[in-house]
Specification:
The chain has about 350 residues and is an alpha/beta fold. It contains twelve helices and twelve strands. It has two domains: about 230 residues, P-loop containing nucleotide triphosphate hydrolases (Rossmann fold); about 90 residues, CobW-like, C-terminal domain (Hypothetical Protein Yjia, Chain: A,domain 2). The strands form two sheets. It has a seven-stranded parallel β-sheet, sandwiched between helices. The longest helix has 14 residues. The protein is globular. The relative contact order is 0.15. About 10% of the residues have low confidence.
Protein backbone atom coordinates (compact mmCIF):
# COMPACT_ATOMS: atom_id res chain seq x y z
CA UNK A 1 0.00 0.00 0.00
CA UNK A 2 1.23 3.49 -0.88
CA UNK A 3 1.78 5.75 2.11
CA UNK A 4 -0.82 8.52 2.24
CA UNK A 5 1.88 11.04 3.14
CA UNK A 6 3.53 10.46 -0.26
CA UNK A 7 0.37 11.50 -2.11
CA UNK A 8 -1.33 14.85 -2.54
CA UNK A 9 -4.67 14.90 -0.68
CA UNK A 10 -7.81 15.83 -2.61
CA UNK A 11 -11.12 16.98 -1.20
CA UNK A 12 -14.16 16.29 -3.36
CA UNK A 13 -16.82 18.99 -2.87
CA UNK A 14 -20.17 17.78 -4.11
CA UNK A 15 -23.67 19.13 -3.71
CA UNK A 16 -26.94 19.99 -5.32
CA UNK A 17 -27.29 22.87 -7.76
CA UNK A 18 -26.91 26.20 -6.01
CA UNK A 19 -26.11 24.75 -2.60
CA UNK A 20 -23.11 27.07 -2.25
CA UNK A 21 -20.13 24.95 -3.31
CA UNK A 22 -18.28 27.76 -5.06
CA UNK A 23 -18.81 30.15 -2.15
CA UNK A 24 -17.44 27.51 0.22
CA UNK A 25 -14.43 26.75 -1.98
CA UNK A 26 -13.65 30.45 -2.34
CA UNK A 27 -13.74 30.87 1.45
CA UNK A 28 -11.30 27.96 1.83
CA UNK A 29 -8.96 29.51 -0.74
CA UNK A 30 -9.05 32.86 1.03
CA UNK A 31 -8.28 31.25 4.40
CA UNK A 32 -5.83 28.54 3.41
CA UNK A 33 -3.34 29.33 6.15
CA UNK A 34 -0.36 29.21 3.80
CA UNK A 35 -1.30 25.95 2.08
CA UNK A 36 -0.63 25.88 -1.66
CA UNK A 37 -3.99 24.90 -3.13
CA UNK A 38 -5.30 23.97 -6.56
CA UNK A 39 -8.88 23.62 -7.76
CA UNK A 40 -10.53 21.48 -10.41
CA UNK A 41 -13.98 22.92 -11.04
CA UNK A 42 -16.49 21.08 -13.20
CA UNK A 43 -19.47 22.85 -14.74
CA UNK A 44 -22.64 21.48 -16.27
CA UNK A 45 -22.96 23.69 -19.30
CA UNK A 46 -20.81 25.47 -21.84
CA UNK A 47 -19.49 28.41 -19.82
CA UNK A 48 -17.22 27.99 -16.78
CA UNK A 49 -18.85 30.56 -14.53
CA UNK A 50 -17.76 28.96 -11.24
CA UNK A 51 -14.16 28.69 -12.41
CA UNK A 52 -14.24 32.34 -13.44
CA UNK A 53 -15.47 33.30 -9.97
CA UNK A 54 -12.59 31.41 -8.33
CA UNK A 55 -9.98 32.77 -10.74
CA UNK A 56 -10.97 36.27 -9.70
CA UNK A 57 -9.97 35.69 -6.07
CA UNK A 58 -6.42 37.05 -6.47
CA UNK A 59 -4.96 34.63 -3.90
CA UNK A 60 -1.18 34.08 -3.91
CA UNK A 61 -1.40 30.50 -2.64
CA UNK A 62 -3.87 29.59 -5.41
CA UNK A 63 -2.89 31.51 -8.57
CA UNK A 64 -5.12 31.49 -11.65
CA UNK A 65 -3.11 28.73 -13.31
CA UNK A 66 -3.96 26.44 -10.35
CA UNK A 67 -7.69 26.71 -11.14
CA UNK A 68 -8.51 24.18 -13.86
CA UNK A 69 -11.96 24.36 -15.46
CA UNK A 70 -13.75 21.43 -17.06
CA UNK A 71 -16.82 23.06 -18.53
CA UNK A 72 -18.13 20.34 -20.81
CA UNK A 73 -19.51 17.13 -19.42
CA UNK A 74 -19.77 15.60 -15.98
CA UNK A 75 -16.50 14.56 -14.33
CA UNK A 76 -17.96 11.24 -13.27
CA UNK A 77 -18.66 10.48 -16.96
CA UNK A 78 -15.37 11.72 -18.42
CA UNK A 79 -12.73 10.66 -15.91
CA UNK A 80 -10.17 9.44 -18.45
CA UNK A 81 -10.67 12.24 -20.96
CA UNK A 82 -10.92 15.22 -18.59
CA UNK A 83 -10.08 14.49 -14.97
CA UNK A 84 -6.77 12.65 -15.39
CA UNK A 85 -5.26 15.28 -17.75
CA UNK A 86 -6.37 18.04 -15.36
CA UNK A 87 -4.74 16.19 -12.50
CA UNK A 88 -1.55 15.75 -14.52
CA UNK A 89 -1.41 19.49 -15.18
CA UNK A 90 -1.84 20.39 -11.52
CA UNK A 91 0.69 17.86 -10.25
CA UNK A 92 3.27 19.21 -12.68
CA UNK A 93 3.11 22.66 -11.02
CA UNK A 94 6.10 23.88 -9.05
CA UNK A 95 6.17 24.48 -6.19
CA UNK A 96 4.13 21.36 -5.53
CA UNK A 97 0.56 21.90 -4.38
CA UNK A 98 -0.33 20.85 -0.84
CA UNK A 99 -4.01 20.10 -1.43
CA UNK A 100 -6.44 19.86 -4.34
CA UNK A 101 -10.11 20.85 -4.15
CA UNK A 102 -12.41 19.22 -6.71
CA UNK A 103 -15.73 21.04 -7.10
CA UNK A 104 -18.11 18.78 -9.01
CA UNK A 105 -21.09 20.00 -10.98
CA UNK A 106 -24.44 20.02 -9.21
CA UNK A 107 -25.49 16.98 -11.24
CA UNK A 108 -22.39 14.86 -10.71
CA UNK A 109 -22.30 11.56 -8.87
CA UNK A 110 -19.27 11.50 -6.55
CA UNK A 111 -18.85 7.72 -6.34
CA UNK A 112 -17.54 7.10 -9.89
CA UNK A 113 -15.14 10.02 -9.47
CA UNK A 114 -13.75 8.68 -6.19
CA UNK A 115 -13.47 5.21 -7.75
CA UNK A 116 -11.18 6.74 -10.39
CA UNK A 117 -8.66 7.27 -7.58
CA UNK A 118 -8.29 3.48 -7.50
CA UNK A 119 -6.62 3.54 -10.91
CA UNK A 120 -2.89 2.74 -10.51
CA UNK A 121 -1.77 5.88 -12.37
CA UNK A 122 -3.93 8.04 -10.10
CA UNK A 123 -3.61 6.14 -6.84
CA UNK A 124 0.18 6.43 -6.80
CA UNK A 125 0.03 10.24 -6.74
CA UNK A 126 -3.16 11.42 -5.00
CA UNK A 127 -5.65 10.29 -2.39
CA UNK A 128 -9.17 11.36 -1.48
CA UNK A 129 -8.81 13.17 1.83
CA UNK A 130 -12.61 13.32 2.17
CA UNK A 131 -15.90 13.89 0.36
CA UNK A 132 -17.75 17.01 1.47
CA UNK A 133 -21.44 17.30 0.52
CA UNK A 134 -22.83 20.83 0.54
CA UNK A 135 -26.57 21.10 1.15
CA UNK A 136 -28.85 24.13 1.01
CA UNK A 137 -30.50 24.37 4.42
CA UNK A 138 -33.08 26.91 3.27
CA UNK A 139 -34.08 24.80 0.28
CA UNK A 140 -34.42 21.68 2.40
CA UNK A 141 -36.53 23.49 4.96
CA UNK A 142 -38.80 24.70 2.12
CA UNK A 143 -39.08 21.22 0.62
CA UNK A 144 -37.27 22.15 -2.58
CA UNK A 145 -34.98 19.11 -2.27
CA UNK A 146 -37.05 16.51 -0.48
CA UNK A 147 -34.67 13.61 0.12
CA UNK A 148 -36.78 12.21 2.96
CA UNK A 149 -39.01 9.57 1.32
CA UNK A 150 -41.74 9.98 3.95
CA UNK A 151 -41.93 13.74 3.44
CA UNK A 152 -41.72 13.19 -0.32
CA UNK A 153 -44.70 10.81 -0.21
CA UNK A 154 -46.75 13.40 1.69
CA UNK A 155 -45.88 16.04 -0.88
CA UNK A 156 -46.78 13.69 -3.70
CA UNK A 157 -50.25 13.23 -2.25
CA UNK A 158 -50.70 17.00 -2.24
CA UNK A 159 -49.19 17.55 -5.69
CA UNK A 160 -49.79 14.97 -8.40
CA UNK A 161 -47.02 16.53 -10.52
CA UNK A 162 -44.39 15.52 -7.94
CA UNK A 163 -42.63 12.24 -8.72
CA UNK A 164 -40.39 10.51 -6.17
CA UNK A 165 -38.35 9.12 -9.07
CA UNK A 166 -37.30 12.61 -10.09
CA UNK A 167 -33.57 12.34 -11.00
CA UNK A 168 -32.74 15.38 -8.86
CA UNK A 169 -33.71 13.39 -5.79
CA UNK A 170 -31.50 10.46 -6.74
CA UNK A 171 -28.52 12.73 -7.38
CA UNK A 172 -28.98 14.45 -4.03
CA UNK A 173 -29.36 11.11 -2.25
CA UNK A 174 -26.23 9.66 -3.89
CA UNK A 175 -24.18 12.70 -2.92
CA UNK A 176 -25.16 12.27 0.73
CA UNK A 177 -24.45 8.53 0.56
CA UNK A 178 -20.82 9.25 -0.34
CA UNK A 179 -20.24 12.11 2.10
CA UNK A 180 -17.73 12.10 4.94
CA UNK A 181 -18.88 15.54 6.07
CA UNK A 182 -22.03 17.52 5.27
CA UNK A 183 -21.88 21.31 5.18
CA UNK A 184 -25.27 22.98 5.55
CA UNK A 185 -25.36 26.45 4.04
CA UNK A 186 -27.97 29.17 4.59
CA UNK A 187 -29.03 27.74 7.93
CA UNK A 188 -28.48 31.27 9.29
CA UNK A 189 -31.54 32.30 7.24
CA UNK A 190 -33.79 29.88 9.13
CA UNK A 191 -35.47 29.85 12.49
CA UNK A 192 -34.96 26.90 14.85
CA UNK A 193 -37.87 24.96 13.36
CA UNK A 194 -36.51 25.42 9.83
CA UNK A 195 -33.06 24.19 10.84
CA UNK A 196 -34.65 21.16 12.48
CA UNK A 197 -36.61 20.33 9.31
CA UNK A 198 -33.50 20.64 7.15
CA UNK A 199 -31.37 18.57 9.52
CA UNK A 200 -34.02 15.84 9.72
CA UNK A 201 -34.06 15.45 5.94
CA UNK A 202 -30.29 15.19 5.81
CA UNK A 203 -29.95 12.88 8.80
CA UNK A 204 -32.54 10.47 7.39
CA UNK A 205 -30.24 9.71 4.45
CA UNK A 206 -26.84 9.55 6.13
CA UNK A 207 -26.00 5.85 6.52
CA UNK A 208 -22.87 6.40 8.59
CA UNK A 209 -21.79 8.59 11.49
CA UNK A 210 -21.38 11.69 9.33
CA UNK A 211 -21.28 15.13 10.93
CA UNK A 212 -23.39 18.02 9.69
CA UNK A 213 -21.79 21.42 10.22
CA UNK A 214 -23.43 24.81 9.60
CA UNK A 215 -21.86 27.30 7.18
CA UNK A 216 -23.35 30.77 7.67
CA UNK A 217 -22.67 32.77 4.49
CA UNK A 218 -20.70 29.79 3.17
CA UNK A 219 -18.01 30.05 5.82
CA UNK A 220 -16.44 27.08 7.59
CA UNK A 221 -13.00 26.91 9.18
CA UNK A 222 -10.84 25.16 6.52
CA UNK A 223 -9.34 22.97 9.25
CA UNK A 224 -12.77 21.33 9.55
CA UNK A 225 -12.79 20.39 5.85
CA UNK A 226 -9.14 19.70 5.03
CA UNK A 227 -6.82 17.11 6.50
CA UNK A 228 -9.42 14.41 7.21
CA UNK A 229 -6.94 11.78 5.98
CA UNK A 230 -9.61 9.20 5.15
CA UNK A 231 -8.27 7.69 1.89
CA UNK A 232 -11.88 7.36 0.77
CA UNK A 233 -10.93 5.47 -2.40
CA UNK A 234 -10.09 2.46 -0.21
CA UNK A 235 -13.69 1.99 0.96
CA UNK A 236 -15.91 3.92 -1.49
CA UNK A 237 -17.17 0.66 -3.03
CA UNK A 238 -19.05 -0.06 0.19
CA UNK A 239 -21.13 3.11 0.00
CA UNK A 240 -24.40 2.14 -1.61
CA UNK A 241 -25.99 4.50 -4.16
CA UNK A 242 -28.88 4.40 -6.60
CA UNK A 243 -26.54 3.86 -9.54
CA UNK A 244 -24.48 0.95 -8.23
CA UNK A 245 -26.10 -1.55 -10.58
CA UNK A 246 -26.10 0.73 -13.61
CA UNK A 247 -23.44 0.25 -16.24
CA UNK A 248 -23.42 3.97 -16.90
CA UNK A 249 -25.55 7.03 -16.29
CA UNK A 250 -26.43 10.15 -18.20
CA UNK A 251 -27.94 13.55 -17.62
CA UNK A 252 -30.51 13.51 -20.40
CA UNK A 253 -33.15 14.64 -17.93
CA UNK A 254 -31.53 18.09 -17.83
CA UNK A 255 -31.11 20.97 -20.25
CA UNK A 256 -28.50 23.71 -20.04
CA UNK A 257 -27.73 26.61 -22.34
CA UNK A 258 -26.13 30.04 -22.33
CA UNK A 259 -28.15 33.25 -22.73
CA UNK A 260 -26.43 36.41 -23.99
CA UNK A 261 -27.58 39.33 -21.84
CA UNK A 262 -27.33 42.91 -23.14
CA UNK A 263 -25.97 45.64 -20.84
CA UNK A 264 -28.32 46.34 -17.94
CA UNK A 265 -28.89 49.71 -16.30
CA UNK A 266 -30.81 48.31 -13.33
CA UNK A 267 -29.37 45.17 -11.63
CA UNK A 268 -32.53 44.79 -9.53
CA UNK A 269 -34.64 44.65 -12.68
CA UNK A 270 -32.42 41.89 -14.10
CA UNK A 271 -32.74 39.97 -10.83
CA UNK A 272 -36.51 40.33 -11.02
CA UNK A 273 -36.52 38.94 -14.57
CA UNK A 274 -34.40 35.98 -13.48
CA UNK A 275 -36.76 35.27 -10.58
CA UNK A 276 -39.81 35.50 -12.84
CA UNK A 277 -38.28 33.12 -15.39
CA UNK A 278 -37.40 30.60 -12.68
CA UNK A 279 -40.93 30.80 -11.31
CA UNK A 280 -42.65 30.44 -14.69
CA UNK A 281 -40.33 27.83 -16.21
CA UNK A 282 -38.87 24.64 -14.75
CA UNK A 283 -35.52 26.30 -14.05
CA UNK A 284 -33.26 24.95 -11.31
CA UNK A 285 -30.31 27.30 -11.58
CA UNK A 286 -29.19 30.52 -13.25
CA UNK A 287 -25.66 31.88 -12.89
CA UNK A 288 -23.41 34.23 -14.77
CA UNK A 289 -22.33 37.83 -15.29
CA UNK A 290 -23.81 41.05 -16.65
CA UNK A 291 -22.38 44.36 -17.78
CA UNK A 292 -23.69 47.50 -16.07
CA UNK A 293 -22.68 50.56 -18.14
CA UNK A 294 -20.75 53.12 -16.13
CA UNK A 295 -19.66 50.55 -13.54
CA UNK A 296 -16.04 49.31 -13.60
CA UNK A 297 -16.99 45.98 -12.01
CA UNK A 298 -18.90 43.05 -13.44
CA UNK A 299 -22.23 42.05 -11.92
CA UNK A 300 -22.37 38.47 -10.66
CA UNK A 301 -25.84 36.90 -10.76
CA UNK A 302 -26.67 33.59 -9.08
CA UNK A 303 -30.13 32.08 -8.64
CA UNK A 304 -31.50 28.90 -7.13
CA UNK A 305 -35.06 28.65 -8.36
CA UNK A 306 -36.66 32.06 -7.73
CA UNK A 307 -34.10 33.04 -5.07
CA UNK A 308 -31.67 35.48 -6.72
CA UNK A 309 -28.45 37.05 -5.44
CA UNK A 310 -26.50 39.69 -7.34
CA UNK A 311 -23.44 41.78 -6.49
CA UNK A 312 -20.36 43.31 -8.11
CA UNK A 313 -17.58 40.76 -7.65
CA UNK A 314 -14.51 42.22 -9.41
CA UNK A 315 -13.37 44.77 -11.96
CA UNK A 316 -13.50 43.91 -15.64
CA UNK A 317 -9.99 43.22 -16.93
CA UNK A 318 -8.65 45.76 -19.46
CA UNK A 319 -8.65 43.19 -22.29
CA UNK A 320 -11.84 41.41 -21.20
CA UNK A 321 -14.97 41.80 -23.35
CA UNK A 322 -17.79 43.26 -21.25
CA UNK A 323 -20.24 40.54 -22.30
CA UNK A 324 -23.23 39.49 -20.26
CA UNK A 325 -23.80 35.73 -20.15
CA UNK A 326 -26.10 33.61 -18.01
CA UNK A 327 -26.08 29.82 -17.82
CA UNK A 328 -29.60 28.39 -17.42
CA UNK A 329 -29.98 24.85 -16.04
CA UNK A 330 -33.27 23.02 -15.68
CA UNK A 331 -35.14 19.85 -16.33
CA UNK A 332 -35.66 18.61 -19.88
CA UNK A 333 -38.09 20.59 -22.00
CA UNK A 334 -37.14 24.18 -21.13
CA UNK A 335 -38.63 26.75 -23.49
CA UNK A 336 -35.33 28.26 -24.54
CA UNK A 337 -36.75 30.94 -26.82
CA UNK A 338 -39.13 32.24 -24.16
CA UNK A 339 -36.42 32.21 -21.48
CA UNK A 340 -33.95 34.05 -23.73
CA UNK A 341 -36.55 36.71 -24.59
CA UNK A 342 -37.49 37.20 -20.93
CA UNK A 343 -33.90 37.52 -19.71
CA UNK A 344 -32.96 39.90 -22.51
CA UNK A 345 -35.63 42.28 -21.22
Amino acid sequence: MIATLDRVPCTVVTGFLGAGKTTLVRHVLENAGGRRLAVIVNEFGDVGIDGDILKGCGIDTCPEENVVELANGCLCCTVADDFVPALDAILARRPRVDHILIETSGLALPKPLVQAFQWPTVRSRVTVDGVVAVVDGAALADGRVASDLGALHAQRLADEALDHDDPVEEVFDDQLACADLVVMTKADLLDAAGVERARARVDAHLPRGVRVVPAPRGRVDPSVLLGLGLAVEDHIDGRRTHHDDAAEHDHDDFDSFVVAVPPVDDPAALAARVAAVAEAQNVLRVKGFADVPGKPMRLLVQAVGPRVNHYFDRAWAPDEPRRGRLVVIGEKGLDRARIEAALAG
